[in-house]
Amino acid sequence: xxxxxxxxxxxxxxxxxxxxxxxxxxxxxxxxxxxxxxxxxxxxxxxxxxxxxxxxxxxxxxxxxxxxxxxxxxxxxxxxxxxxxxxxxxxxxxxxxxxxxxxxxxxxxxxxxxxxxxxxxxxxxxxxxxxxxxxxxxxxxxxxxxxxxxxxxxxxxxxxxxxxxxxxxxxxxxxxxxxxxxxxxxxxxxxxxxxxxxxxxxxxxxxxxxxxxxxxxxxxxxxxxxxxxxxxxxxxxxxxxxxxxxxxxxxxxxxxxxxxxxxxxxxxxxxxxxxxxxxxxxxxxxxxxxxxxxxxxx
Length: 298
Ligand SMILES: N[C@@H](CCC(=O)N[C@@H](CS)C(=O)NCC(=O)O)C(=O)O
Fold this sequence. Notes:
The chain is an alpha/beta fold and about 300 residues long. The protein has helices at about 110-120, 135-140, 160-170, 190-200, 205-225, 235-255, 265-275, 280-285, 285-295, and strands at about 1-5, 15-20, 40-45, 55, 65-70, 70-75, 90-100, 100-105, 125-130, 150-155, 155-160. α4 runs parallel beside α6 (about 235-255). It starts with a strand and ends with a helix.
């Protein structure tokens, strides 16, 4: 247990669980305990006057906003009268919970893209888990398409990782994650080609070849743009692609005994590099959850 004595060392966004609970009297969201979260860290808040212990995933650089069985505890109000000016309120994002484990971070590459963007921008955030197999009614009312990720922006719910990451880039321009225009779409077709190949039941339908064409093009691009898509710096294109490559690697290995060909050395190094980023490890779903997430096609 790590004792926190000052807000300035209070750096971890919270992650809480939201699902439609049959026990609830209303459709309003409730914040429930974070117990049993993988990688969770227990913080004690001495002299805070607030309910003792909060758990949060070790997900990044955000200010800790503790979540207890009794709800959100804003640490800024917790005995820090002489503290530095209050940090901005954490950005609220709603991301997928794991299939069959509604209290754990799930296998959504679009959700991870948003978390990665927040991590790389150093923006405090509060990630809430949505059980997509049991979506709360308030979530469907606010977001009729019912997909995650969703971000609460000025009181409004905004869906779609393209839109959310664009808003984050505009609101938090530094550090810029913009990918130069000519490289912004690199790897853009890999995910649909991967999904088509994964779902394919016919070994001769060309889906494997189509995926390979995209992977070779990506490898070729990376040959002259290392180590990331735009060169030295991680940019938005990497944060969109890395979670998709994570799914590709895990799902194709598990369901098709297939892996990225050894001769695509630039791509293999790239995958290794992006998946080794601390930010990636903090925001990734467990491998088993990725496998479980694709099981419905088999
Ligand atoms: N284009 C969307 C795709 C979002 C998406 O497909 N989310 C999936 C999870 S990865 C989802 O919410 N599925 C639940 C459902 O469709 O009910 C984005 O970029 O955010």
